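Marked as duplicate of an earlier ticket. Keeping the data here for the record.
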Amino acid sequence: MIKAEPKTILNFLGTHFDTLKDLFDVQTSDNIIRNERLQEILQERDDEILNQLVDYKIIRKLADDYEFRDTYYKLFEFILNEFRPLLPETIQKYEQSISTLFKKIREGISKDKLILGQRINDLYNEIKEFNEAVEKNTIRLLNETRELKSNVEKLDYKEKVQKASFWIDYYITPLNNILDINHAESITNKLFNISNYVNVRRLNFDDELIRVQFEKTYTFLVQTNDDLLRQSKLLTNELLPLIERIRTESIILTGWIEFLKIPYKAPLPKVFKVERTYPYSNDMYMNAKEYLEQFAVDETIFVEDPLMTTDKWVFNKDLYKARLMDQLPLDSFFEWCGLTLRSDYERIETDKFFALTALLFEEGISIELDNAEDRQLINTSNMTLRVPKLKIARYGLS
């Protein structure tokens, strides 16, 4: 039992923050606060607060040494933005706990309402802890990657390559797999299924209190989906390219350094020839002169109205988007465009085909280029198009 008032403890934390931060750094580095190191810090800060630290249950004794209690350690971890990176298998444990709770909710949906409400609340808390763990890991990985890029620790090229490979193999790639909604065993995929179930129950459950809990859980799942998408984009668009660039650059520089040490041991590679080019043609003056001369003489121009009028085609974007989403996933997007136009109009007109390609930029769609396949040929009304094979699928929670 803590005898001190809450305000007293909060004032204590503010007054002795520097000392507590030093102790936090020691435990983060050594996983424990040795008694000798504790005494050194208190003496350096001229801060005799050991008794208060123990009485306020900020630290606890382990044999002759000490450690922060989890509550205070996480508090300092949060306000200092200093998070320990969790192994992806540690985060993966939430897949089991979330799946188990979801299974029990479905099995007990028509049974005791009190137990059902508690399980919904536990599911909410598990999803929240999972989301926070992913966010903390992403922040930590981003900090580590930026420090590696700026080489704060003054590592040589070989050590940078090894460290970059370590972060990719053990943290970034496995974490990215956890957040991949198209992966059948990913936690994000499980949350997609839970979201569909909760969305139905929040609208038609007979008990008002349970319905409110389902509503709260569904709203939180939508927000969680947005958060996880941001974390996934950060991993895919920033972390992986940055750390891959570090690894590649370091390997190239290391190879050149080794070559320069013994330049005659290996044949000299071909070096590119330097040439000067200009952003404009050498014939630009004459081309411009010829273009302007055609307007020097006025000519009579006759404008006639077209004899035939055609109905203007209006692209119904919402209709075609709905048809596309109903048929996802697709192995070839451009082939779908051609088949759709041929079905509707018996021919593929070029302007209609290009209008359909605008659907690639709609939200909720993921695009994958199949490099293994050859380009496809699409014959339109007045040209033949050579297009790549694009696989598309749904992206994110509904």
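See parent ticket for discussion. The longest strand covers residues 365-369.
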